[in-house]
Design a protein that fits this description.
Elements lengths: L1 H8 L17 H12 L3 H13 L3 H25 L5 H10 L1 H30 L15 H20 L1 H26 L17 H11 L2 H5 L4 H4 L7 H30 L2 H11 L7 H8 L3 H35 L18 H14 L12 H12 L2 H11 L12 H18 L2 H21 L6 H6 L2 H16 L12 H19 L4 E3 L15 E3 L4
Antiparallel strand pairs: 1-2
Helix pairs in contact: 2-8, 2-12, 2-15, 3-9, 3-12, 3-13, 4-9, 4-12, 4-18, 4-19, 5-6, 5-15, 5-18, 6-7, 6-15, 6-16, 6-17, 6-20, 7-8, 7-15, 7-16, 8-12, 8-15, 14-15, 15-16, 17-19, 17-20, 18-19, 18-23, 19-23, 20-22, 22-23
Amino acid sequence: MVSVIHQILYPKEDRYDSGDIEKKLGLVDLTLLGVGSMIGSGWLYAALTSSGYAGGLTGWAWLLGAVMVLLIGLVFAELAAAIPRAGGFVRYPQYTHGNVVGFVIGVSSLLAYTSTAGVEVEAVRQYAMYWWPALGNTDSSPTTLGFIMQILLLVGFFLLNYWSVKFFGRINTIITTFKFIVPVMVIITLFGYYHGANLEVPGTNPGGAHGVFSSLTGAGIVFAYLGFRQAVDFASEAKNPQRNIPIAIVLAIAISFVVYILLQFAFMGAVPTDLLSTHGWVGLKSVFQSPYADLARSLGITWLINLILIDAVISPAGTGNIYLAGASRVLFAWAKNGHLFNIFAKVDPKSGVPRGALWLSLVLAIAWTLPSEFQVWGGLIGAVTSATVFTYLPGPVNAGVLRARLPGLKRPFKLPVFGLISPLAFIASSLLIYWSGWSVNILLIPILLIAWVAYVVFGKKDENFGRDVKSSIWLLVYYLVVLVLSYLGTYGGINAISSPMDMVLLIIVTLVCYYWGVASGHETLVIPHDEDEPEDDVTPVKVKSAYQ
């Protein structure tokens, strides 16, 4: 079936190889990269966790999360279609604001990408404990044998990515097909046990609108949607990226939303009423350690238990494979920006893969699984989500700078109503960061502040250094103000500023920083051709601002 779709979507004249990074990924591949990374470990846990936050309102959280991520995704669709670059999330800030902003966003990308592969192998190991209890301790942390299994899984992802882009894409297509079938079967089966009255049962914390907002990051809802970025990360390896990237982003988010909303209501409606009346939605966490498998067990559906447990290994493994590949593209892009050794910016001429960056991705992914607090799936979800959103944060600002400075840039996908959608995407990113809570922000924002200071103090002092620092002050102020508001606010803070005033203040600050960031973009932009990437329609020379 997949091969038939390929023949329809990719006529022979559209199949070409150009440059050292091979253009092997078509629309189906890009869409499945997104869907495959979205339907990973998130679907196995998010329904239970989010119902504990918001109860019957959880469906609104999935819808709100999809809309917010779509706003961000559409901005990057314009960027990636106009300037397709491997690891574009790291490179666009470099193009518009220079080395300081590029370095800081590279740090947040490094945190987000390399940790996700580790989180997914932890999910694989935890579910594998059903068959092999020796892989973990009673608190689900790994034993020595469990650590060995996680490392071997990451090495397996490394090898799948090592040989070629085409091989990676074909393996991902097969895995994603299976990952899509199992949730659909779960949905159909559980709706046979649906009790609509379950949605009226209280017992949520904090509940209401606060619960909806908190669940977006705390329950893994936004984490489940973040896979749209794969189409951007693999832009330079995509066939006809100007057409396929925007379509793939929209399709991936839309497909995942439908699957997730149906899973949420199927799960909530099928929970036995006696369990729900006894424990409430919050208390179910102590009953269902593995939500869907335990629910199937309570309903006596043995065949579904086995199917879920098989998919619980395959789904996170497939997602971990994608994110390890994505991490290598980010490290490749960071090296292209001049912030890593040149060896990580090299592409193997035979396979078309940045193998040096892939090796570093493997080492960092293994390292993320070592600290004790990060040895179970839930220990890092909020931080990974927020770190990823920090990576997306400058995208609307970058797009705004390009609109102002290069109005004549060829934009195969031109985002309509840009003046509204772009600042809304920036606001959406800020709200997601704020809703992740003080405990996450006090961990991540100081790291980014230190990165900013470190580069200003120790970074390369070339002729553009002063300009780059000036172009980055808006980002420094943004981090500081968000950190203060997070401390004073109602999401894990000291509640000195009540709701909704805390969010109103955040939106005001966000808009000020958005327009400040756009105004701080370089007057003269340099968007070079990369020797390892195919030629495109973006000029490799300096292009002066329309305002000069």
